[in-house]
Structures are given as C-alpha cells and as structure tokens.
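Our collaborator T.R. sent over the components below with a one-line note: 'Predict the complex.' Nothing else. No constraints on interfaces, no templates requested, no preferences about which chain binds where. So this is a plain run: every listed entity goes in together, and whatever single assembly comes back becomes the starting point for the next discussion.
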Amino acid sequence: AQRVTQPEKLLSVFKGAPVELKCNYSYSGSPELFWYVQYSRQRLQLLLRHISRESIKGFTADLNKGETSFHLKKPFAQEEDSAMYYCALRGPGGFKTIFGAGTRLFVKA
Amino acid sequence: ETGVTQSPTHLIKTRGQQVTLRCSSQSGHNTVSWYQQALGQGPQFIFQYYREEENGRGNFPPRFSGLQFPNYSSELNVNALELDDSALYLCASSQSGRAGEQYFGPGTRLTVT
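Returned assembly:
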C-alpha cells in the first residue's frame, strides 16, 4: 500500500537549534517525494522536491531509498520557520499525490 | 499571473443535500486536482482532471464527481452529503509535464449539519 508517515504531530525547537522533520514512505517503485509547507493564514505551497536536490530557505531533504525516508532538515531553525509541514509522494508519471498527516513545527525564541 | 482561486470560501449544508465547489486554475495550467482535508489530517486525493477528462481517482465514492471546462477551471460536486464530508476542500493546478509542481488554492470549508 502507498503510504506516507510523519511520526511527529508537533515538533518544538529553540531558535538556532537544528531541526529534523521525519518522513517515511511505503511505495513499490520509485516515487517522487515532496515537502509542502503551510504558514499561518497562507495556502499550502511546495517547499522542495527530491529530484531538484536544492536547498530552499535553508532546508534540505535527502531521499534514502534503503530506509524509505525523506527527512527534512535545517541546521539552524528560525522563528519564521514555524508552520505546518507535509511530506508527500507521487508515483512516476502518476496523477495521485499522497500526503502525510503533517508535522507542526514551532520555533521558540 | 493569477493564482488558483476557489469559491465559495465556506458554506454550510444539510445532510442529504448537494454541493458544487469551484476552482479556477493558475494561468497556463491545464491540470486540476481536488483534495479533501479533514481536521488534523493531510490532504487526501479525490481526483484529477486533465484536458476536461478525469485521469485519476482516489478512494472516494461516485457521489463525488467533477468537471473541467475548456478554460481549465473545474467543479467538484458532492451529492447526498454526509456529516463526514465536513472538511476543507482544496484545489491544485499544475502544468502537464510538471505534474509534481502543484499550486494550491485557499480551499473551501464545507460544514455538513
């Protein structure tokens, strides 16, 4: 079964501390993996995708096919990073995006 | 360039009624996907439309149906509303060939009483 699991509903860190939001997936094949973010009173937006291998707002995510994980990391959290983060997957050439339940990140001053 | 818009912002319906939600895709996008997001959950894929045809569907009953128009705007129709249909309904548009890069609308909050 295709599934995305985000084990933490809430993650609270201090400003300047490293942050890692966990994402594990179940998919038979080679999916595309994404991280979406929703800031307060804003719409859901794409943060990054694994095929781009880019760093956005200091965040990176590495696809680990052996562990079927796609954890989101940032070395130094900022207060403006406080938001809801969703991990998502999509099959190659597929139409269906499967989202995890989301992790709320709270960065304390 | 205009972003994805949805209407109405919110509405309240009674169990058994029918509802139509609307979505205008971002300029240049020909693919629209609809999602249901229950409180505390991630978005769940309902279906996708590409060039006015449904080309994929999630685990939703037939009373959830849709349309896409020549200008790529879209409607989501839900018949025989149930209490569990209460949720935020999100529309996302994308360009074919860049199917992973979806742009979301603000959503329509549906409450069924």
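Summary for T.R.: Residues 34 and 49 of chain A are 4 Å apart (CA to CA).
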